[in-house]
Amino acid sequence: MKKLKIIASSLLLIFGMGSMYSCDVAPTDALMEIIKEDLGFIPVIANFTLASPTASATAPTAGTNCTFDLRYWSEGEIDRVQFWVKLGTADPVLVDDRPYAPAFSNISKTDSLLINYTIPAALPVGTVVGMEARVTNKNLPNFPVTRTVNVTVR
After folding, report:
1. What are 3-36's pLDDT values in tens digits?
2. Least trusted range by pLDDT, from 10-14, 41-45, 91-95, 122-126
3. What are the DSSP calls for the chain, one per residue?
4. Whole-prediction pTM
5. What's the CATH fold of domain 40-152?
6. Domain map of the chain by residue range?
């Protein structure tokens, strides 16, 4: 009887450890491995910020020219970089679409790209302007990586 308790406890412990291990695996890990093996690598956006007016300044007003700074890289071959803007609750609109051009920065160890966008003069105060960067690799056009910077008009 004592041996039966020890065997049952051991089996319960083994199954318990196996179930805890399975919780550590994200549901998309297998998908990412398949993408890497079959098609290549997904790009990485290291940073996307509002470069000017600077963060220490007050929020921009309508009609202000803003500069956004994108830092990105990829182990695969980058195809395109797109910028979309969303004004308030409106649908996003493509404002810039350019093929990849190498612009490696020794400081950040990434490619860097600046985009200028003038906030429309007719926007009311409090409107949120969302600038979205999308980076796409050549072999993975259906898997763009995005990052958004939101600016509130004052």
Report:
1. 666 776 665 666 665 555 555 566 667 666 655 5
2. 10-14
3. -HHHHHHHHHHHHHHHHHHHHHHTS-TTHHHHHHHHHHT----EEEEEEEEES-TTSPPPPTT-EEEEEEEEE-SS-EEEEEEEEEETTSPPEEEEEEE----EETTTTEEEEEEEEEPPTTPPTT-EEEEEEEEEETTEEEEEEEEEEEEE--
4. 0.73
5. Immunoglobulin-like (2.60.40)
6. 2-33, 40-152
